[in-house]
Amino acid sequence: MKKTIVLALAASTALSSAAMAEGISEFRIGILGGENAQDRMNSYECLRAYTEEALGVPTKLFAPADYAGVIQGLVGGTLDFAWLGASSYAATYLQNEDAVEPVLIKVNLDGSIGYHSIGFARKDAAIGNLDDMEGKVFGFGDPNSTSGYLIPSIEIPQYKDGITMDSGKYFGEVKFTGGHEQTIVAVNNGDIDGGVTWADGQGNWEDGYNSGALRKAVDAGLVDMNDLVQIWKSKPIPEGPIVLRKELPADVKATMTALVDNMYENDQDCAYNIAAGETLGFQPVTHATYESIIEARKLKSK
Questions:
Q1: Residue 33, pLDDT score
Q2: What does the pLDDT look like over 30-43, one tens digit per residue?
Q3: What is each CA distance from 286 to 13, 86, 112, 236, in whole angstroms?
Q4: What CATH topology corresponds to 2-109+239-301?
Q5: Domain 114-237 maps to which CATH number in 3.30.1330.10, 3.40.50.720, 3.40.190.10, 3.20.20.10?
Q6: Cβ pair 61, 208 in contact under 8 A
Q7: Per-residue pLDDT tens for 244-255?
Q8: Are the C-beta atoms of 114 and 285 separated by less than 8 Å?
């Protein structure tokens, strides 16, 4: 029943499936890193199925090993849709301003549209804050991640004099793990002393907050949050945008925007999967929301 409602909604926003498919022979959805590839594919399968029926063309999921794979797919025109982090959007925009357009942003349960980079460690490691991380191994996810690198690389050095992102200067080693899930697992297993990941910062720590990588790790049975402790939290970061390839036909863009925009109302399970946890759905967003992140990314590149 839910599927029928969503598809009817999509059809009402454009022409018939045959007309919408004019100019495209397939639709390609890119999925940023954060979980292992199969889990990412499983989470997005509901969106893939809805999209395929709404557009009337084969729809494929792509889950590259790193963020750069999605970014390059969007820049090169081999991907049509993705939910990017703010920094990944900035990277895409800085490479090609005309590659994609942001259309939607995730909404938290309190109506806000931000999240946080969360620093964390094992509770039994006797690490309570960044002071206790001196000389220890700190893990970051991906160089193109907003919460997994860009924002903490700017804000953590502001915590106190002497902190840098260079291995061996304050932290014993600064290490890239490859993604949010990898960071969480590495900290939980004791392979690294602390790490950063993303969460909306709402709800209960024991649940991995309401949404984010910690929540997904709890859902997957990878961690017990009672074994972990928060050691740092960033200022609010704007949620990343859902983007569409700018050259897509207008009817296709309208249909996909409506499909995702109304997913929460019509299939909350699918919305949960797409949004990595609890959400009120999505709302429109524009490029202006990300201008500060783009400037931050420019500064880091220098």
A1: 76
A2: 999 766 778 889 99
A3: 20, 12, 16, 18
A4: D-Maltodextrin-Binding Protein; domain 2 (3.40.190)
A5: 3.40.190.10
A6: no
A7: 999 999 999 999
A8: no
